[in-house]
## 1
Amino acid sequence: MTLDRTDPESEIARAAEAFGNWGRWGADDRLGTLNFLDEAKRRQGASLVRRGVSFSLSQRFDMDGPQKGWRRRTNPVHTMLDTGTDASLGLQGFPHGIGGADDVIAMPLQCSTQWDGLGHIFDHGRAWNGRDAAKTVTSDGDLVTGIEHMAPYVAGRGVLLDVGHVVGTDGELPDGFAITEEHLTATAEAHGVAVGRGDLVLVRTGRLARARREGWGEYAGGPSPGLSFTTAGWLHRTEIAAIATDTWGFEVRPNEFEHAFQPLHQVAIPNMGLLIGEMWDLDALAADCATDGVHEFWLTAAPLPITGAVGSPVNPIAVK
Amino acid sequence: MTLDRTDPESEIARAAEAFGNWGRWGADDRLGTLNFLDEAKRRQGASLVRRGVSFSLSQRFDMDGPQKGWRRRTNPVHTMLDTGTDASLGLQGFPHGIGGADDVIAMPLQCSTQWDGLGHIFDHGRAWNGRDAAKTVTSDGDLVTGIEHMAPYVAGRGVLLDVGHVVGTDGELPDGFAITEEHLTATAEAHGVAVGRGDLVLVRTGRLARARREGWGEYAGGPSPGLSFTTAGWLHRTEIAAIATDTWGFEVRPNEFEHAFQPLHQVAIPNMGLLIGEMWDLDALAADCATDGVHEFWLTAAPLPITGAVGSPVNPIAVK
Amino acid sequence: MTLDRTDPESEIARAAEAFGNWGRWGADDRLGTLNFLDEAKRRQGASLVRRGVSFSLSQRFDMDGPQKGWRRRTNPVHTMLDTGTDASLGLQGFPHGIGGADDVIAMPLQCSTQWDGLGHIFDHGRAWNGRDAAKTVTSDGDLVTGIEHMAPYVAGRGVLLDVGHVVGTDGELPDGFAITEEHLTATAEAHGVAVGRGDLVLVRTGRLARARREGWGEYAGGPSPGLSFTTAGWLHRTEIAAIATDTWGFEVRPNEFEHAFQPLHQVAIPNMGLLIGEMWDLDALAADCATDGVHEFWLTAAPLPITGAVGSPVNPIAVK
Amino acid sequence: MTLDRTDPESEIARAAEAFGNWGRWGADDRLGTLNFLDEAKRRQGASLVRRGVSFSLSQRFDMDGPQKGWRRRTNPVHTMLDTGTDASLGLQGFPHGIGGADDVIAMPLQCSTQWDGLGHIFDHGRAWNGRDAAKTVTSDGDLVTGIEHMAPYVAGRGVLLDVGHVVGTDGELPDGFAITEEHLTATAEAHGVAVGRGDLVLVRTGRLARARREGWGEYAGGPSPGLSFTTAGWLHRTEIAAIATDTWGFEVRPNEFEHAFQPLHQVAIPNMGLLIGEMWDLDALAADCATDGVHEFWLTAAPLPITGAVGSPVNPIAVK
């Protein structure tokens, strides 16, 4: 598949037409591809718990995170309402020697390991399922497809595609590397794992490992390996429920068009209704999968049900 | 067991002595009773996924929550950085028709459905495992037992004890009702379920159902059914990994001593190292359990790994 | 002047037509009636400093404020980044015995004593000076009339009109009391003070004094004395630079039309370009003015230059 | 005066002993040197309003500010609760064509132009007036000397000492330049202005002008010109009410001792009770003073009365 790199708008329109899912689950749908994750898939996923070992796929949420302020995305600010120092000095006014600590947080919902909600991206003023973006996401939040509607469902079979290890060097792909359908297929074959309807697919590029080694640099917003625009067909045809990567932006950066900004998002979220995860930490899980040769597992990655949110921090838990 | 209601300090000291776990998992322990949740328990839990149906046990996070400002605990404030209205009007400056929405949140970590971290409560200046509270939780957060350390582990066998239905009227216990060991045991027997080492136990009182029907009122901080101080022995003896309720404060309110504040917390968190969840929404799960008669399930309730946090919002997912 | 209480839209249109100032200070104007406050007026104002006594006209900013959550307006949440307890215990890691405390705040800009910026209210999609509201105030804030543009100018002659004392009972007007032009004129005459071009006019109703005595209740958003819709002509004719009250909403509540919401705002801000202050604490100043009989003074009430803000907290300082 | 650069602790102790003011205004004092600013000084200050021109001495508060995250100090995050785009599209649900915009802010109180409160710095566990730091500033804020107590008073005679212009090159001092008493005196003489009891002294170094030209770089926390530790005696002897600079940290950076952190703060705030302002924008005022040769003016710089705050953003207004 060749892209006209000078004409993203036409290419996006073509992909949206070919791979869109508007109306597939009815006019009132709020779940998009998460509809593919059914009870049978959950039973299959649960059967993958063999050893009982669990992994968190989340980065830590703190001021040492990757954000630099782009579009007012800061790192989380965590402050204390009460502390052990106050308690220790007897300053809290509680009876019988009890003391307490409490805390608050302020953070962008997309500051670290997160899901993009269906209201996160629009295509020419249209949100998921063809809705008017202006009537879907206002200053009051996402009035229709807020991420709270997904709260109970994101638990099923996870599949790791460690493209960094299979295709890259020392487990890492370079910035600007566009992962194609061929790379995804080759990786799945190398792992001996199949990807299909309702799966939660995790694509490891090694970009986070590099940031961890070399410092954040432009991890959040800069050059990165990621999915090629040309994978839109694969994303659609496989009928996966969700996909997540260890990169800031899921798709390759710089983008594959001359003047573009996240064109695969524009196809995948508002047109396909695909649930996308970003900045996941897949390294410990990948190391385990490399060791035991098993790249499928039970995965729970439930967004916080923040009413009207277009994204959510998440601590995904894989159990093998 | 009879309590001297005039002397909470002595009763707490006695319970702490009898039911404390300091040193049980070594001097460096950061997990407390979560140590009981091992890989075998996870395998057992996963085997409980029979139908593949999933439930979120989280309340929604928004301004309509229960908080009234006690100790600066507010409801979550969710605001938008970008919206569909801006995108729709072509005001975002992006190419090829892409538009986006982003959002931020500010919230106390204990504002709604949450876990108490091990640094949340102190006993006479001592934190979990006997540590000096002042050196454990400062303005920089919990430097030792921050909730990020629990991130990978809270997935296992869940057991619902619907005391509201078994002991109460119309599924609800009245405010001030102290749930005793006998109530817990009778409920487990009525459900035909056993509670043991490593389990994640959910106790439903019906308090949230009442708040949902009648309005929040004093849900957050006021009178409530909850665990009796006298259950400390049961909590210790059963070797459960964690416990959560549908109430604000886990234990009965008013407390069972004349001048007291959360005495069971003082035993359970810093002395026993027990992981406690509060304000969980157990109603949909309870209805399902009442229908199919199965009160055990796979439960994932991973806290966000907020560095140094003494609590975390959580969206617990039960799968049956 | 009689109002058709069933037709706010026509009455507003009439008043906007009669009392609007669009174009008066050029197409690029960002200041509205603040243009009336010139250097001569500042010289006059400074000459009113006779005794050198200063008054803060600000309520305190804290969790004990009036907000109840309407439209996500909360009270300020102030938390510490570092404390004296940490410093005292030697936990901060600084050399030679220095210790420090730092703090953060999260607050709506209209939570307490504040100015409404010119981008705060629109009339049928039009912002101040006839601008398209959609192109003026987006999710990025007020791109044109952000309150930062007023930062240097709000210092001049202040005049207190204590309508509560002159017209009310025991210094207070009842809720729902509509202050008319006649009340304003009578009060100025009783005080022996003239109101004119460029003045910063403070209208005391006594509503805050009542809230202070009886509790906040519905102070923020509920019934209140305030300016009648019929004062629009007086506000325009006097050519005052700004007006502020001790009430939540400046104008009388309930509003004087059957189905209405803040109709005088709709005339005064987008059409007249009037700078409006709310929730000011005028009581100490009013007591002093009653004592010495002087109701004019030097007033500095500079908004924080928050880029793109449509309001700002302010600590107004009157000096007599 | 020579400093032993290897022994900051002894030098600080000596200066604290020589220049401390504990008890000078009684045991209950909350104002420190602000006590020097009396009504006569305010009358003198007001008399300096000759032309009626006003200047804001505040930087703008936004994400483009100087903070880099040191000690969780971020730049302000300003978000909208309602916008003109929503209003324009008729999505707000208000009657008769009214629309509105509202906003919130989250910011450290010391992120930009600000006052240090008296609870901001401690000396060996002692806060201003000899108080126990641990009992003065807890997680609940500054319980004694919160900046709200200063709210009405910071209005008086301002004096600009443009050391950058008098002593520097092209109006700027280089980083690491320690401003001594001699520099301050020479600058005052060059300006023909006297500094004395109760004055609000503004020292311009040109550091902000350089940051504005070259980018923030390490403006917040890095090398900078500033007051020498040796000016402690001058600060004390002149009996000024407050001092502010156009730099991040008031005193010279790197500090003049080998292993030190802000030693002049340690003398000036907890021992002397001096009110210190930082990150003020003095450039426009300085240009005007250079033009008309008048370096004194009426200055109002009222902190927001945030209960228990150890600092406050401020928009200082100078009027000449």
## 2
Amino acid sequence: MAKICQEVAGERKIPIIPLVQAFDIYRISQEVKIPLWLQHLDWHPQGQYTGWLNLETTLDAGAKGTILNHSEHKLPFGTVRRTIKRIKKTTPQFQVLICCRSLGQAERLVKIEPDFLAYEPPELIGGEISVSEFNATAIAHFVEICEKIPAIIGAGIKNKNDVRIGVRLGAKGILVSSHVVLAKAPKKTLEDLAEGFL
Amino acid sequence: MAKICQEVAGERKIPIIPLVQAFDIYRISQEVKIPLWLQHLDWHPQGQYTGWLNLETTLDAGAKGTILNHSEHKLPFGTVRRTIKRIKKTTPQFQVLICCRSLGQAERLVKIEPDFLAYEPPELIGGEISVSEFNATAIAHFVEICEKIPAIIGAGIKNKNDVRIGVRLGAKGILVSSHVVLAKAPKKTLEDLAEGFL
């Protein structure tokens, strides 16, 4: 899948970042040249913190960034802040995307100043109705909340049309999972999504 | 370090199991033949559980077991039970060691029937006074609580003498970290600890 991302990113000249498990990131980093991000990172430093995903090993394994507060891995606000603070202090080039599931959450999380902020209404995740079709007003509002931070949108995004609506509203990128990884022809789907940005 | 464990295990004919991070386990599994265990596992299955350490990938990466409720990664009782239930149902050969920090906790956790139960009084972890020197009565009681489940002891264990006292009291193994991984001569320390079992 990472190789497919690399091919499409090269062909369409747009950045595509695979989100990878801790188990797999080193191996995948040996196979592709595009940046890889970790699906989740803990705030714990290396050392007496057995069994947590620490930044030091994440960097050694070749990751260039991470997602925090993914809809399937929610974190308390304090944990997100603590993790991002540690990253900014020690490794400011390591990128962080924070997910939020509501505009209220976006307003709170934007203050932590992540590199990217993503909005995914939980009720649309994995579904057939995309966030961009469903609620253009919410996206426009989200883009406003983000100000200078690139606004990413996710949930139900399945084709170039969904992407185009989002881009027109000010979104700078998309978060996508099931519609690509479970697709019969993932490369074709990814190419179609990429076209939405062109 | 895993290679050192393998050498000492081979020379002294005793099992030594390195406890490895998710990031590293696949690579290390390619380098050694002794079993490797993960430092922590989540209960979440593969699929829509982004950013969790799932059993399926753990097995693919070559792990033969895991620790749950490590002193640096405490878990609610229900989470331990849920995780072990899932393992026993799908992969009974995958081994689980549960850590506990008190005898009361041991009494509760032994009912979940892990493959190993470990007792580590938190105040002694990483210190110079070993659990076996400090409280022989507690260890004897812990061994009793374990019944048929192999009793493992940890905290402050630094030489063959500490091991011998524990073994005499009925312990079947030890959990050791800082006294080996931070040792100037880790192999020598490991050989010394191994002698305590002979």
